[in-house]
Specification:
The protein is built from 11 helices and 6 strands. By secondary structure, it is of the alpha/beta class. A hairpin with a 2-residue loop joins strand 2 (20-26) and strand 3 (29-35).
Length: 266
Amino acid sequence: MVPPQPLSEEPVKIDPDGDVLFVVGCDKLTARLRVSSKVLSLASPVFAAMFSPRFKEGSSLNSGCPYELPLPEDEPEAMTLLCNCLHFRTDHIPRSVEFSLLKALAILCDKYNVANAISAWNILWLQKWETSKCEDGFEGLLTVIYALDCAEAFAKISRRAIQDQVGPFDRHRVPDGFDMVPQSFLEGLEVRRGAVQASLQSAIEDIATPILKSKCQYKDELAHDEYGVGVGTKADLRWITGWDNRSVKQQRRLLNLADIAPESGV
């Protein structure tokens, strides 16, 4: 991976004959990237419009003297990676990336509408997160996948999120810069998680109600079983202490131990 370079250094020649010189970032965290407007235009409708004759950038293109284009709001390392991908510089593309870089890349993919052009790389990089934890939680991870428009990865990881999430999905954990993601996105996941939890709660109530209403000799034993699950009564039902502080997977495991878990629909 090519790190951001100071302005005083030679530009990264992503295309040695490129007709555009990106100056990405600001202050000392700046990368200078020589790129091809033709390659970028084929990959991105945003770049295609930008480099058309109707705009200053397009009318100023000259392959002998690259047109310098400042991109102060873009992240240098992510833009370097994106341009390497779009120019097929496979020897400069890592097979694994840190989540912080993936976040910055997702913002660029949405801004320039290039997610589809690098979808093969996105799928490769997201494989790590199908089984690994993310520092931004499932909210951050799924937001990034949404911006990268990777349907297969989203299906796999959203299924795991519904099973492993402890507590409601929190919109406040969505990373900065992802205002393009609709609020209904997390709300829909929370509805699905709630539906699974409701089926598990129903399984508890189905078996607990007759026990609590009876004079069964096992009633006291069920009040605190061998797995350390504390139980009380509320509205004549059996309630597991700390139930809301457990993930769906943990809740299902407890019910499986008691042989009362319903069939999984997720």
